[in-house]
């Protein structure tokens, strides 16, 4: 099976989800590499900031860097042949180079990635992230109606836990005010798993 090597430019990580904003291209490419692995391809990925010696040891990569500095990155090699430089290829291109049957068209387009990023910005209360991805989505032709749908979906997911705990608090407090039997209570022990009102372990340690 084909061997795919990815030489990334210097960055904190290759997932696309670290830093102040989500990079949809990196998120999409990481998913494409996982897809290649799932079909038997060997995939290796190197970061210039963390593994400079690997870049220097590869003659083709070193020559590309000497010719155009970091503009050559990302550089993709398949079976030791340079297939692309300066961009992240599509899943279809990777499949062709690796000799794997072409995948079905992905629903995770750049536009879809921006809608996900907008939702993440709402969930994390990040104004700068929202403005950044709103602008990118608009440039991709995403309608304001679709962006609003993403915002409402993210907000609904975000509010669900808070509504549940408010309902729990109201149930406890209403029972106490009406003179009814108090809801069962458990005394947490620091360091032990937290338990719900029914005594079932919820995970995590009590504070």
Unreliable stretches covering 5 or more consecutive residues: none
What percentage of the residues does DSSP assign to strands (E)?
Answer: 5-15%
Task: For the largest sheet, list the strands in their spatial order.
Answer: 2-1-3-4
* CATH architectural designation of the largest domain: 3-Layer(aba) Sandwich
Q: Quick one: biggest sheet?
A: 4 strands, mixed
Number of strands: 6
From N to C, what is the helix and strand string?
A: EHEHHEEHHHHEE
Average pLDDT works out at: 85
Fraction of residues in helix: 40-55%
**CATH topology label of the largest domain:** Glutaredoxin
Oligomer: single chain
Structural class: alpha+beta
CATH evolutionary superfamily of the largest domain: Glutaredoxin
CATH class of the largest domain: Alpha Beta
Using the alpha-carbon principal axes, give the shape: elongated
Task: Give structural notes.
By secondary structure, the chain is an alpha+beta fold. It has 2 domains: 3-98, Glutaredoxin, CATH 3.40.30; 110-177, no CATH class. It has 7 helices and 6 strands, in the order E-H-E-H-H-E-E-H-H-H-H-E-E. Strands 2-1-3-4 form a 4-stranded mixed sheet. The protein is elongated and about 75 Å long. The model has no long low-confidence stretch (mean pLDDT 85).
Feature tags:
single chain; 207 residues; alpha+beta; Glutaredoxin; 2 domains; 4-stranded mixed sheet; two-stranded antiparallel sheet; 7 helices; 48% helix
